[in-house]
Amino acid sequence: MDRKLNRSIDALDDNDEEEMADNDEEEDEEEEIKDDSAASSEDVEEANEEFEKLTNLLIHKTSIRTRRTIAEDLKYNLIYVQPFCNKALDVIVNSFEREPIDLESLSAEDRNYVVERLSLDLPLSIVTHRITSDRYWERKSEQLIGAELKHLDLNDYENNHKRIFFEHFLKNKITSFVPLNHDFKNLIKFCSLGGSFVKRLCLHQLLIPVELPKDFKRESINFDDITSKETPNGHLNLGVMGQYFPNLEELEIMYRVENCGLNFEWDMMYCTKWDCLSLCKFIINTPLLKILSINHSRLDDVKLQLLTANLPHAKNLMELSLAYNNIGDDGARFLAKYLLTDPQLFLLNLSDNNISLEGGLALFYSLLTNTNLVSLVLSMNNIGSKIGPMLARALSDNLALRKLSLAANGLNDEFLEVFSKSIENYVGVSELDFSSNPDITIVGFYELDFTDIKTCLNYKLESNRIRKYKSVHKVITRLKNLMKSKRSISKSGFSTFSDFNTINLE
């Protein structure tokens, strides 16, 4: 019996051990299953992320159709094959220089595809008249002027990037052209290609040859005939270039050299007779010219005579600026004769020249019959106070003039006394600039009475001895208040005080 009990007990112990082992194995299997499920979930997430990346790469990053079937195992996805039409367009792009085509024959979508991929280094002779897409010329402009393009007002260029490119490109070519060193025919070639797209040409410098012949004389030129010679006087011949700018409306030119440093010579800042005659031929060949500016060029009376003789050919000219030159009384007379013809010119700028009383009289005399001039700038000359009677007559008879600047012209109280006598007849002019005339004092405005003026006059009186007042009305009001006070003021000046500057008018 004992043996049987022992055997049964051992059998139960063996069963318990087997059950415990089986339980341990089941627990290990469950843990392995959990680990496998966690690993599989991570793999699924990674697979989903790779799948999303692939779809984004094929769909979002490209504007072309993708395959409709994508394998679960990303390794078995085939490489995308471009449509045949894109392959054909790539051939057009790569062979455009050898075999250019008319892009207008393509659809809008295909044309944009080609334009975005065309090289910016293609010759201008190929792309100028074949590519009309504004996007291509925007890319060319960005390459040429860089960040400056962002600061340009596109409305000034009629939202035309092709015009922006050629205006800056030809400006750089002309201002960097060194006569007798660079190829003049190459410059003419560029002008013939893009000149018709240019409406504004700003030439801030014109270079001269590095070395001139020893027997060279700048003024020993025969002015009767201008041939196609490149530089008989050292500067670029503009006369033969005007025909390539048929749509030019604004020309700004300065006969000088920028950043010359220690190599400075006065010949670099000099406009010769030949230059002036060459410029006249340029003006004749640009019939649409509206704005002409020749500043900082040491232009004198002799050269101005040549210029004014040819200005009637510019029938559309509306603005003329000849500031910062050496124009004297004779030059002012030549301009007065031109104004007597009553051209369409409405702005004339002659600031910082050598015009004195005689030249001023001639200019104001021409205003008696001129009906188009709106603005006349004569600041920084030496006209003087004796111009008062002629100015009063001109402003009384001329109804077109609106703005007149006589700043820094040596005006004094005597001028204002004459000027004020007919002030009620100045029904046309609305802005007068008398600033920077230190001889104008508060006494000069004593006789002014603004109660009967038919028009609103805007005076500029900065840098005078009454500069503390921005308006003449304040001066008159303060004078009337002083007259009511114990301080008596006579017409000839201040009777109580020897110096009017001692009176505190604030």
From TrEMBL:
State if Transport is listed as a keyword.
no
**GO CC annotations on file:** cytoskeleton
Q: List the keywords (alphabetical).
A: Cytoplasm, Cytoskeleton
- InterPro entries tied to this protein: DRC5, Leu-rich_rpt, LRR_dom_sf
Disordered: annotated span: 1-47
Location within or outside the cell: Cytoplasm, Cytoskeleton
Query: Where is the sequence biased in composition, kind Acidic residues?
Result: 11-34
What is this protein called in UniProt? Uncharacterized protein
